Amino acid sequence: MRVLLVNTLYPPPTVGGAERSVRLLARGLAGAGHDVHVAAASSTPGRVTTEEEGVTVHRIPLFNAYWPFDPGRRPAHRKLAWHGLDTWNPVMARRLARIVEATRPDVVHTQNLAGFSVAAWEAVKRLGIPVVHTPRDYYLLCPRNTMYRHGRACARPCPDCRVYAWGRRRASAAVDAVVATSDFLLRLHEWLGYFPGASIREVVPNADEGPVDGPERPPLAGQDRPVRFGFLGRLEPAKGVEVLLRALHAVGVPGWEAWIAGRGSPEYLRRLQRLCPSTGVRFVGFVQPGWLLAQIDVLVVPSLWHEPFGRVVVEAYAHGVPVVAARRGALPELVEHGRTGWLFDPERPDELAALLARIVKDPSCLAPLARTAARARSRFGVATVTQAHLEIYDRLQSHDWLRPS
């Protein structure tokens, strides 16, 4: 089978987990013997095609007001221009169509479409090729891409988001199969009227490379050190770091420390440090996930926004680390309460404080959860996730698609 994956970026340029996930899928498909192409946007002029790890990568120069991944703030009028063109970008659609015409894939699987815009779907369908789409975030729903505003997760799109999303929702009728990374993300898009023409609607989690059976960690009981909690992610309000720090302040018993890993603005970092002056809290900056996960006993994911997936949970499982997570977005789909970790209401920091205190008082409770967490990693293996996608592509191929001669 020949498959074309379309994503805003393809590594080495990386801004989040989506690029890693697309790369793992591309490598998995190529490793299974399929002809895999990737189309991604580029900041440099001229189309460049390269062979990378058995995958043909087509980098297409972005046509818009600016390259959105450079640091720094931009004036409001330029942001408005960027979002306006990204609502329907005919130039990028034509550039993508040339790739489709040259490669003639059996299936086009779109992922993050920022830069390409939803015009990509019509360009592909005009050539009679089935379209699979994976919503990985809230790009189709919210211009901030977070559904988080004024310190709270949005229960429904606000008026400006409804205006922003109107054309995207209509264009989603061109999608033949939707493959979301979480049931939460799939149901949210369906509830808001997206993908009315999709004959296939499935949930396939993101893959995570590494051993299928993560290493089991030794039980903490009897070790001559405090229980070590960890946070791993961007240091920003939506990630709930303040919820964690307030809960730690209220634990009320000694015998713990917390390592906070991630980047954030200097102003926000100072705010966090003022919240919890305890010497038990250590800000370690940006580190590789594996380094932190090898040092901690419990990962805390206190998100206030609705996490579309929660890759950090899967990474914790690969290291045999149980997870304490907020009941937000897709996190309850990943964390089995009482088996691989615990869930709590982030609106109730006292609930989190009680969970943390329980762990400090009886660290031996972590050992069985660590073993179960390590076993839970298997469903996120690259081979498993690749096979799930191939089955969906095969189902699409069984349809009698009308292709132009």
UniProtKB/TrEMBL annotation:
Glycosyltransferase subfamily 4-like N-terminal domain location = 16-206
Chain coiled-coil ranges: none
- InterPro entries recorded: Glyco_trans_4-like_N, Glycosyltransferase_grp1
Note the Pfam families from the entry.
Glyco_trans_1_4, Glyco_trans_4_4
- Name the chain's protein: Glycosyltransferase family 4 protein
- Species source reads Carboxydichorda subterranea
